[in-house]
Amino acid sequence: MRKITLDLDVLRTFSTGMELGSFAKAAERLGRSTSAVSAQLKKLEQQAETAIFVKAGRGLALTEAGETMLGYARRMLDLNDEAITAVHGSELEGWVRLGLQEDFGESLLTDVLGQFARAHPKVRIEARVTRNADLLDRITSGRLDLALAWSSGASTTPHYEHVLDVPMCWIGPAGESRNWQNGGDPLPLISLEAPCLLRTAAVNALDRAGIPWRLSFISPSLTGLWAATAAGLGVTIRTPFGLPTTVQRLGPQEDGLPSLPSLGLMLHRSEAQPEPATARLAAILLQSINSIPQKK
User: pLDDT tens across 118-137, in order?
Assistant: First the structure.
């Protein structure tokens, strides 16, 4: 098979269009004409020597080959951008204090710190994984430079941005299906210690649905929460991020549980205009969040 070198500019247009859900929007973001974008997509199919797109109504959908290409395109662009940053940002220095919600401690921290350290070896990072209320308090008091936290829906910090909305879901032990209201007993609920945004959401949903409940296990940490859930002591409520293999999402209707709202994920900054090192870490953090798989 002859060697083919894919065009990174073409891959960037392809990836951006799929991210935005529109190649017209991609053309606008990348400063290209729609005809130039169309030519690039045609070139991509020529280089791939297979169909990348298929007609879907008035738009385009990816073929199986297209889905495979998209995954590789994103990885190639990430590596390209990391290389450029490493070359031009190797002299970046400073100290960044980062705070993360427990849900992202394992799924995000290693990737973010590793990528940042390779590109900016002279920057020192102090990372703290803790509860939501503690993160917001540390940002407000200036003890953290960046914090990734759930939206409380009330008062917040002076400098923040909405990252995305994440669905809350009921969680039970893996590989087990049961009626948690069997016999009319109160639903056993596993929760973190108060105050807990998700605990409040669970209680409100159950009360609105008229489902009796009881706290069967209270944990000070996410590790204890997962252990109790995996052991079958009850159900809990989290988001799809960072779920261990010992637990699974429950279907609200099939398991007799009420539907749940989404939860906003926010990136907080202690300063309106952060230092260059802080701004760069924030960019890597946002990029990594979008690549985290959410367990189905």
Answer: 878 888 889 898 888 889 89
Residue at 21: amino acid letter: G
How far apart, in Å, are the Cα atoms of 60 and each of 22, 37, 68, 87, 176?
9, 14, 16, 37, 39
pLDDT at res. 296: 47
CA pair distance 192, 199, nearest whole angstrom: 7
d(Cα 175, Cα 48) in Å, to the nearest integer? 40
Q: Phi first, then psi: give them for residue 124, nearest 5 degrees.
A: -100, 130
Residue with tokens 């921290």: 109
Please report, to the nearest 10 degrees, the dihedral formed by the alpha carbons of residues 81, 87, 88, 91 taken in order: 130
Strands 59-62 and 53-56: antiparallel
Q: CA-to-CA distance for 229 and 247, rounded, in angstroms? A: 7
Distances (CA, A) of 125 to 112, 145, 273, 281: 11, 10, 18, 9
pLDDT single digits (tens) 163-199 = 888 899 999 998 866 666 566 789 999 999 888 889 9
Longest dimension (CA), the chain: 67
**Burial of 278 by CB count in 10 Å (0-12 exposed, 13-18 middle, 19+ buried)?**
buried
Would you put residue 184 in left (φ > 0), alpha (ψ -120 to 50) or beta?
Answer: left
Which stretch of DSSP H or E encloses residue 124? strand 123-130
pTM: 0.64
Q: Which residues contact 77 (CB under 8 A, 6 or more apart)?
A: 8, 11, 12, 15
Q: Among 20-34, 104-118, 213-227, which stretch is predicted with the lowest mean pLDDT?
A: 104-118
